[in-house]
Amino acid sequence: MLFWMSWCGDGAVMPNVTRGDRAAGLMCYLVGEGKRNEHTDPHLVAGDGAMLAWHDDNQLGKASAMAIARHLERPNKVYGVDVQGGHVWHCSLSLRADEGELSDERWQEIANDFVSRMGFDDQEGTKAPCRWVAVRHGLSTNGNDHIHVVVNLVREDGTKAAPWRDYKTAQDACRELEKKYGLMPVEGPERGLATRGYHPAEAEAQARSKARAKYDTWREQEARQGRQHPVWRQLPAAERGARMNAELTADQPRVALARAVRGCAAAAKDEAEFVRRMRQQNLLVRPRYADGGTDVITGYSVAARPVAGERPIWYGGNRLGRDLSLPRLRSMWEDTPQGAQAAADEWAAAKRGKRPVAPGRETRTPPPAVWEKYQAEMATQLKILAQTPPGDQARWAIAARDAAGAFAAWSTRVEATPGPLARAADELSKSAQTKRPVTGVPVHKTSFAASAMLLAAAGGKNNAAAQAAVIAQLFRSAAAIRDMRAASGQVRRQAALDQLMREELVQVARAYAPAGVASSTVPQSTTHSVTGETLTPAQASFPSPIPGRLTPTGGNSQARPTEADAARRRGRGR
Asked: N or C of the chain: less Cβ packing under 10 Å?
């Protein structure tokens, strides 16, 4: 669905085409921080040829915003033409939050078509074109992917564009573009489900059907092994919702790309290695330079390598996940002049398609002693995590980020198609998506992140016991994050991770258990993270996925009545 980003109190969508006389003020706002610091990575996705030649997709700053404004207003100043209502025409084109995000290339196509349908281009050589740009700067505060189209209504020859009935014209243009690009249609009395696109209720029904079918199959398998589980309709609403959400995200290619990048980031010890690991995973990589040069790298874009004859679809790091923006990734690595230069060399080689400049440990198999070292460090890290309050969002976000990266690296190594490890990485990454950068925490890579390097390499079988010990600690980190979610009142997220651990990850754990874990590497007893519950040696190695009794912070601590309690109450009421 394409619509304007102006919301009424009752949730209706209203047109928000605006006019003015100050292109400089508008452009500075579009490349600035936004009213609530929601603007991230401002750059051009479309515009007239001169604009794209000068600025490409580089990150825009105030100086570039002023240069763009001067270019836009040049015809108006040269010809001295006044336009009633203002010569600067501005419109925001947006998607619904639940429709996800588009690539820059797709937004470019939409912007070009929209400007043509509005009559602002040369109309196939019959008119002089208007100068215009389309800016993209991240999601809105409501989570909507969008672009801003800015047009000078004074054409190159001094004539005026005719914005008469521009609201109606823009509405009609959006409806046409929805059909052309397969976007969700706007609902209305005259619009039915036969229109090209999809309806949210239809997608939800399909996700519910798939989730229920998978659950029924799993329940039958468990029953054959003597384990009984409730039927679908008896599951808590939070667990049913978690299963449906998993199905809704299963087919999104951006999720798979984010998982691959997350695994590379966690396994890398510095930015240069991060670039090399992404290329090692057969990803296309290109840097984003600061405006006006090629020596300062402010961001990056990646794309899955397309099949022959297709064009790659690029995604900026920030659009893959808040924790995958380059500034946040850099907080994981030590900042040195030598490291910055090495990273710049690798970025340049990636952009030009040349061989890596200085291949490093991503090409080597770690020795057995390294597995033992990180297993001991992870045990220490888990003890620290067990003492971390559920409300310490910064530290839990780091733990979730690193654990998600380790599962992602492991999945990339051993899963031909996304399986339990991939789903664990995706689910854990949700706890790493903080709106603001994590501050106040020392910059270092935790042992969980370091384990990603080991799992990505998947050393030989001669150190199976050490590998199993590292994997056991990684499972314990996932259990700790699950417990944190429960203690923080994150019911749906806790249910999603609990379901994943109970049904899928426990099978992975059993597969590794026969390899044996040396008794010296597993503590004889430990405590349940957050709750302080004492665990047996077996539970300490591969923790039970069933959470203990937890009281959500800031919520009602009274337990909910069971179905048996409700039945007794109904009986007394008769």
From this structure: C
